[in-house]
Write a structure and sequence with these properties.
It comes from Hymenobacter sedentarius. InterPro entries: HATPase_C_sf, HATPase_dom, His_kinase_dom, HisK_dim/P_dom, HisK_dim/P_sf, Sig_transdc_His_kin-like_C. 67% of the residues lie in helices and 9% in strands. It is an alpha+beta fold. It has 3 domains: 160 residues, no CATH class; 70 residues; 164 residues, Histidine kinase-like ATPase, C-terminal domain (Heat Shock Protein 90), CATH 3.30.565. A hairpin with a 3-residue loop joins strand 6 and strand 7. The longest helix has 104 residues. The protein is rod-shaped, with a radius of gyration of 59 Å.
């Protein structure tokens, strides 16, 4: 077998040791892991030079010098691996080096002073040397693969850390943006809340204005309509006073006529009944005005649609006549006698009818003002039952409504009347009262220059 490296090979082993240390430094990243050891390993060649100089000075020719230096290099390498044993590839290299180091240590121990090995150990040491070399190469490859794996894991961790830092930075930025956006939205919400409060106040004022406008029309109609029953009450009261005077005169006569007294009492009774009837008529008109003017409670009650429509038709007519005493129109009513009562809010539904009637009279009056020959203003009202709904048709032979206008007629603040004659809320409020307040429908049909007809359809029972 080969002997251990001899004396002449000392200078050859020094560069080999330097190369091995350089590879070890790079593989184990010693500048980072073991900075002080890394500096000392830079002088791994110094012992070889010292031994060489000593051998030259003292003329020492023993191969043990090179064997000692090589063993020293292996021991230093093992010490370094032990120092960085927490690093998995270092532990693998230590495991790879152990048999090789033990083999050379055994050779060094059993070698003679001349560096020669006894014959009896040749086979065993050759076998162990081959095994140690194969073992070393195998585990060096394993350590190399481990390092690659760890390097990949390190790079992956760095990427993950980088991504994590990026996400954290983005989260901080997003939190800042969310905070700014939240403050902006809060400010906008406050502005919108303030604007909404202002809008609701304005809306309430406009609705109240529209109610007062309709109340004005109603009041004018009532002033004219109530004159008839009041006149009847006053006339019958005067006649009754005269009859009572005649009755007292008859009672004062020595010879009383029972037949005449009975006739006078019958006349008084009839007059009082007529006074009561017309007094009730006046009271109902006043009640209608009060119900129309006060805020609704939203409570539905069985309502006679025929009576409600007839009442407000005449009041709307008299309201317009109060403005223009020259105006006259034909009132055409066709009320179904078998019409059932409807669960409705009377004052609200009365406002709807008053608005539709007022618009109808306004339309026929405008057409009448054009001076068409043979034109007779007519407003007709028809009630009927269709399945579980009651229908009210309000038709006039006025100017009609153009197609473009019909599409916007129920929009708030839209009006075809001149400025100062309408708020544009009448039909909009009427539509809301019918559709939302009574679960019904309000539609319109018209032919320009011919007619306009509004159709109200109300469910008889709100639960149906």
């Amino acid at each position: 077998m080969k002997h251990s490296p001899g004396y002449g090979e000392l200078l050859m082993l020094a560069p080999l040791a330097v190369l091995m240390v350089r590879g070890l430094r790079r593989f184990l990243d010693l500048p980072t892991r073991l900075a002080r050891w890394n500096k000392l390993l830079g002088y791994i060649w110094v012992p070889a030079v010292v031994l060489f100089v000593v051998a030259q000075l003292f003329n020492i020719r023993s191969p043990l010098l090179s064997d000692s230096y090589w063993l020293f290099v292996l021991l230093v390498t093992g010490a370094v691996l032990v120092a960085v044993r927490d690093y998995r590839p270092a532990r693998t290299l230590l495991l790879a080096l152990a048999p090789f180091l033990l083999h050379h240590l055994a050779e060094f121990i059993v070698s003679g002073s001349d560096g020669q090995l006894p014959k009896r150990y040749d086979d065993a040491l050759d076998t162990t040397q081959a095994f140690a070399i194969i073992w070393l190469i195998t585990f060096v490859i394993i350590a190399r693969n481990q390092k690659k794996t760890l390097e990949k894991e390190r790079l992956q961790r760095e990427e993950e850390e980088k991504a994590k830092r990026l996400i954290e930075a983005q989260n901080v930025e997003l939190e800042r943006l969310v905070t700014e956006r939240t403050l902006a939205l809060t400010h906008q919400a406050e502005e919108l809340r303030s604007a909404l409060t202002e809008l609701r106040t304005t809306q309430a004022q406009l609705v109240q204005s529209e109610k007062m406008a309709s109340l004005g029309e109603l009041t004018a109609g009532i002033a004219h309509e109530i004159q008839n029953p009041l006149n009847f009450v006053n006339n019958f009261a005067d006649v009754t006073v005269e009859i009572l005077g005649e009755l007292r005169e008859e009672q004062c006569r020595p010879e009383r006529d029972p037949t005449l007294e009975g006739e006078l009492l019958d006349d008084i009774d009839q007059n009082l009944q007529k006074i009561h009837h017309h007094g009730q008529r006046a009271a109902s008109i006043v009640k209608a005005m009060l119900e129309h003017s006060r805020a609704t409670t939203g409570e539905r009650q069985p309502t006679d649609i025929n009576q409600l429509a007839d009442e407000y038709l005449r009041l709307a007519y008299q309201g317009l006549r109060a403005k223009d005493k020259t105006f006259n129109a034909t009132l055409d009513t066709n009320f179904s006698p078998l019409l059932p009562k409807v669960e409705a809010i009377g004052p609200d539904l009365g406002r709807v009818l008053l608005n539709l009637f007022s618009n109808a009279f306004y339309a026929v009056r405008q057409r009448q003002l054009r001076g068409e020959a043979g034109y007779a203003p007519t407003v007709s009202v028809c009630t009927s039952q269709r399945d579980e709904h009651v229908e009210i048709r309000v038709r006039d032979n006025g100017l009609g409504i153009p197609e473009a206008v019909r599409q916007k007629i129920f929009q708030p603040f839209f009006t075809t009347k001149p400025s100062g004659e309408g708020t544009g809320l009448g039909l909009s409020l009427s539509y809301d009262i019918v559709t939302q307040g009574h679960s019904g429908t309000l539609t319109v049909e018209s032919q320009e220059g011919e007619f306009t007809e509004f159709l109200i359809s109300l469910p008889i029972n709100q639960g149906g």
